Structure formats: C-alpha cells, structure tokens
Amino acid sequence: MKVIVIGAGVGGTSAALALQRLGHDVVVYDQMRENKPVGAALSLWSNGVKVLNWLGLGDAVAALGGRMDLMAYYDGHTGEQMCRFSLDPVTTQTGQRPYPVARADLQALLMDAVGPGRIRLGMRLVGVDDDGTTVTATFADGSTDAADLLIGADGARSFTRDYVTADAAARPERTYSGYTNFNGLVPIDERIGPADQWTTYVAEGKRCAVMPVAGDRFYFFVDVPQPAGLPYDRAVDGKAPLEAAFGGWGAPGVRVLLDAIDPAVSLNRVEIWDIDPFHTWVRGRVAILGDAAHNTTPDIGQGACSALEDSFALGIVFATNTLGVEDALLRYQRIRSERAGDLVLRARKRAVETHAFDPAVTQAWYEGLRHEDGTGVIRGIVGNIEGSPVNLGGGILA
After folding, report:
1. What are the residue boundaries of the FAD-binding domain, all occurrences included (predicted)?
2. Would residue 20 count as lying in a domain?
C-alpha cells in the first residue's frame, strides 16, 4: 500500500515510521524548505517516549533527552522556594522516564529514520481528490502524487483538515488562549536552577521556566498573558518584551536567565492558540493527526505526545484490521478523537489556572504550591498519561 503523509513534523514522521514498519511505501511532503521547527524544545512524557521506543528509537531518544529528576516552583518576586520534589514517581508508575528534548534534534532523528529520498521538502499541498480508490495530492508547483491513502499532519493551519471537515456541521476554528510564549535554548547555569531539575518561577499569572535537554542546555519557556496580534520583530525588539514582563522580578535566577538569552541565537515567540475538540478526523481515504486534529495549548506538555499516540494508533489499526482503508481510518478516529479532545480541554483548564485569567483561581494555585509535596502534581502528570493507547490499559502501577 502506498501512503502520502503531509507534514514532516513529529506527528507526520512518526506516522510514516509506523506505517513503514508494516511494509507500506510511504512518502512525506512538507512545505518547509529545511528542518526549522517552530519552538525550541518539547516535553516527551512517558506516553510519547513509549511510542518512540515502539518505533525502535528508544536509545536515540534517551541520548537526546535531558535528565529531569526533580521539579520545583519558586516565587518570581522573591526567589523563595515554594515546593520541590522528585519526579521519580512518574517513571515508576508509568514504566518510562520522561525526557525534555530539543525539537530540532528530535525532528532530525525522525526524518533520518524515515530514510533518504522519502521526505520531499518545499512542497505545499493545494488540492486533495479522493475517487474512492485512490487519493491524489496536488502541490503548489503543479505536481501531483497518488496513493491508497493520505495522512494530513500539516499542523494547526491544516489544509487537510479543511478538506476532511468540509461537510461537517461546524468547521473547527482556532481560538486564542490569552497568552504568548517565548522560548529558546541557553547554556545550563545552576544559578537559574539545578541541571537535573524542571525549575519554574511564577507570579502575576506569568511563568518563567527551564528544563534540561542534551548538550548541557536549558530549554527555557516563558508565558506572558497579553492580547493577540501585538507587533513583534525579533531583530528589532529582541528580548525587550521579556524585560518588560520579568525585568522587575526579584528572583535572582530570572535575572540570570534573561541575561543569558541571545535573540540572535535562540529566541522564538509563539502566540498560543487551540481548537475546540471535534471528532471528524476522517473523510474516505484521508485522515488527519497531530495539531491538524487536536491543536492544544502546551500547558500540560502533551501536544507532541498526543501526536505520537496518533501514530501508534494508526499503526495498530493497519496492522490488525483487514476490511480496507476507510474502515481502518474510522477505527483510528474512534480510538483517538475522544482522548485527544480531553487533553485539549485539560490543557485549556490548566492555562486558566496558571495565567490569572481568573485571578482568584491562580492565587489559590500559588498558595497550594507552598504546601505541595509533589503528590498532587504527580497525580496530574500521571493522569494525563494513564489513558494513552500505548499503555494498552495496564501501563500505570501505583
């Protein structure tokens, strides 16, 4: 069977690998001209890592991942420690250590694994035609390709999603979450936080955090509640918005981080949007996955993991069902859409809690952190992992 995948991000390449492992002929198209992913890094929680293990990439992913043994919150104004605890229960309960990884490193690993000549860059999808037997993709340069099925992993502004949902009662629309995220990579500096710790400074509904990744680097991400559409030019504005948002904080680690950020080397700005959960992921021989199907805020760190779960489910349905492409894709949709939608809503709820959209809720969260021994946070992290299809119903040991 020939498969076209649109999108060479984490979801598209992992889906390609899952189907290649079954012996299918897979070609991946992406409109980007080189590996320049949006965002500096991502959280691979245990469910995402398990999918990569299943794809045969476990050792390589472990080598890319930072060792994150601890988690701690600090008051952004004073630097006072609010709580600090081990993340080991996540590993022992789920059976797999989580890893923060640089996104470009992971994407390069996945693209290399798909294989030479199987990924074609600079190709923008502009048309899809499904005649019931063959799906034909048309690209902006006028070229076409035909296959037995097409998987759209083409991101939050997915062309494929528009095709799949063309006849739906309500078309999915992106919604601004209320905050903008700045992220990048800096050298590890223990004045910011220990090299094996997820360190987060909080105050005023803003968040300033670092996670360790391979190469003696911290992945930093900071959240600033603000309206959508504010102008920003990295070459001109640089880190001025970060100084405006965090420069008045008294926590010494925040000052060290701000000083370490070099906009010319690593600084991304991303307005955070999501999409209300929807359940039309399939139209005939065409299906969507990843952000195209469940664009989410990063507040529970499950965006990439959810895309990897899609790829796992896609591989399983094509390995175990024999009633045809359309039937297998509908089974994939049934496995994935409800859980993925639930994670979108969990992330949205978490965003409200952490960003002072309701100040009383966020203040109550701050007060709770001062009494947190890790039990509540671990419960939330494991709860997001527990329902993963990769666990086959038995992946959590309390």
Report:
1. 2-344
2. yes
The answer on pLDDT for 34 being more than 80 is: no
Please tell me the predicted confidence (pLDDT) of residue 36.
67
Decide: helix, strand or coil at residue 224. Answer: strand
Contact 222, 272 (CB under 8 A): no
User: What per-residue confidence (pLDDT) applies to 33?
Assistant: 81
Q: How many domains does the chain have?
A: 1
pTM over cut 0.90 = yes
Domain extent, residue 322, equals 2-174+274-391
DSSP assignment letter at 208: E
Q: How far apart are CA 217 and CA 238, in angstroms?
A: 20
Is the Cα torsion angle 274, 275, 276, 278 positive or negative in sign? Answer: negative
> Helices marked H in the chain — which ranges?
10-20, 46-54, 58-64, 88-94, 103-114, 159-164, 234-237, 240-246, 252-260, 291-294, 303-320, 325-354, 359-369, 375-386
Q: Is the pLDDT of residue 38 over 70?
A: no
What is the rounded CA–CA span in Å between residue 212 and residue 209? 10
For residue 7, the SS3 value is coil
Question: Among residues 93, 125, 359, 342, which one has the least CA distance to residue 225?
Answer: 359
Percent of the chain with pLDDT over 70: 99
Q: Are 40 and 185 in contact (CB under 8 A)?
A: yes
| Type of residue found at 226 | Q
CATH number at residue 49: 3.50.50.60
pLDDT, average across residues 129-158: 97
Residue 200 domain-assigned?
no
Q: Which two tokens stand for residue 388?
A: 């993963």
Pairwise CA distance, residues 3 & 25, whole Å = 6
- Whether 115 is covered by a domain: the verdict is yes
**Residue 397, pLDDT score:** 78
pLDDT at 395: 75
Residue 131 burial by Cβ neighbours in a 10 Å radius (0-12, 13-18, 19+): exposed
Q: How far apart are CA 186 and CA 212, in angstroms?
A: 10
Give domain status of residue 214, yes or no: no
Interaxial angle between packed helices 46-54 and 375-386, expressed in degrees from 0 to 180 and rounded to the nearest 10: 40
Average pLDDT, stretch 357-377?
97
